[in-house]
Amino acid sequence: MLKDAPARYRTIQVIPTPEGFGAEITGVDLSRALEADVLAEVKAAWARHSVVAFPGQPLSLEALEAFTQQIGRFGVDPFIAPMAGHPNVLELRREPDEKATNFGAGWHSDWSFQPVPPAATLLRSQVIPPVGGDTLFADTASAYEALSPAFQAMISKLRAVHSASRAYGTKGVFARETEARTMQIIVSEEADKTHAHPLIRTHPVTGRKAIFASPVYTVGIEGMTAEEGAAILGYLFKHMTAETFVYRHKWQKDMLLMWDNRCTVHLAEGGYDGHLRVLHRTTVAGEIPV
Ligand code: SIN
Fold first, then answer.
1. How many of the other CB atoms lie within 10 Å of CB of 236?
2. How far apart are CA 218 and CA 10, in angstroms?
3. Pairing between strand 23-26 and 51-54?
């Protein structure tokens, strides 16, 4: 297994968390086009650790866009108005006096309801509050591997139904919101559509299997009653977000974070009312989950 072999890097420094889920990468300047060998090592470290943080990268929006395109093609970001002049960049902004719940507050894998969900999300910090505002990640590959072989076999053939309806749908959280929000959310009937993916997907680079479901976007299991689906999904959500599988990311200003939506879920913590928080986000297109 890729995760167990010792890793050596020639062009970058990689400091993994003790568990190996999440790592910090230094010794690279993301504001310039990376040499092929450096880019290959960055991608290898990302595949190995799933969530990689690059501290000390004061990237312009153009540099963020350019680095994103070195990782892959832009993904499609629905239901949120992009930044003016930057159709592939979302500004995640919450003002000090904002009362609406912070964006991304429930466990999810970005846009998993799309037929071809994004492989990567990149998030660059501009203003970080002095308290709160961490981003938590759960390792859904390790969570899958920790299940018993009998349970793995039982769930491996299932297909999970994903939808944006609970968040962006006509009866979703944002449609019912009464507090003002800085980010422009686009509530739409389009969000009420559903799309099924394998409940357990195989990572195209590492070959590891991972649970591909989340409480925000997974609404059932194909062919099962709502109660049956909720029982299996409820167990999986509790299991995969247990502390042992979670990496807590603490932000610094000018940090770029890149995560793999194919084998992780994440949530944004609040706890910074009274303070401004501003980050810029892009996604990289993925593949049809198998
Ligand atoms: C998200 O992309 O879901 C939000 C992450 C964050 O604001 O920390």
1. 24
2. 40
3. parallel
For residue 234, give the 3-state DSSP assignment. helix
Per-residue model confidence (pLDDT) at position 1: 40
What pLDDT score does 4 carry?
Answer: 56
Closest protein CA for atom 6 of ligand 1: 268
Rounded average pLDDT over 83-87: 98
Task: State which H helix or E strand residue 236 sits in.
Answer: helix 226-240
Residue closest via CA to ligand 1's atom 7 equals: 268
Cα distances (angstroms) measured from residue 30 to each of 72, 246, 250, 251, 261: 15, 27, 20, 17, 21
Per-residue tokens: 238 = 């509790």
Global pTM value: 0.96
Q: Domains of the chain (ranges plus CATH)?
A: 6-284 (3.60.130.10)
Compute CA distances 161 → 78, 118, 143, 254, 262, whole Å: 18, 17, 20, 37, 16
Residues in the chain: 290
Q: What is the Cα–Cα distance from 280 to 216, expressed in whole angstroms?
A: 21
- At residue 7, the pLDDT reads 84
Confidence of residue 146 (pLDDT cuts 50, 70, 90): very high
Ligand 1 atom closest to the CA of 267, numbered from 1: 3
DSSP per residue, 24-58: EEES--TTSPPPHHHHHHHHHHHHHHSEEEE-S--
> Tens of pLDDT along 221-246?
999 999 999 999 999 999 999 999 99
Position in ligand 1 atom list of the atom nearest CA 281: 2
- How confident is the model over 177-200, as pLDDT tens digits? 999 999 999 999 999 999 999 999
Question: In 3D, which of 259, 140, 160 has the Cα closest to residue 209?
Answer: 140
